[in-house]
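Protein modeling request. Please complete all fields; requests missing the sequence field cannot be processed.
Requester role: graduate student
Desired output: 3D structure, token encoding
Chains: 1
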Amino acid sequence: PEMMGMTKITRPTVLRYKGTKPEDWGVSGFVLIAESHIAIHTFPEKGFFSLDIFSCCDFDADHAVKYVTEKFGATHFDKNLITRGREFPRSLGRAVKIIEGDRQKLTVGAV
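Delivered output (111 residues):
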């Protein structure tokens, strides 16, 4: 979290999962941050992990992807960047743009 300018508010929690099939085991971890949370789920036998960085603040997603793929030695990844928390803007100006944009979408959709 600190590397991305986020504020850790809990210690990381790490849990091992043992599925009904031997290859389904994995390790998951999460940390709560003032900006929301970071969670990871790993499945070593399947060579797969999933990472979720949920933040109400902007951060450099490409930097986070580079850091994690290097740490895990990932050779392939899919990145899905979703804008969430739009209803919680930091400034009045940003709120106005969001509302105006949503109204324009509704108007276009109603035609």
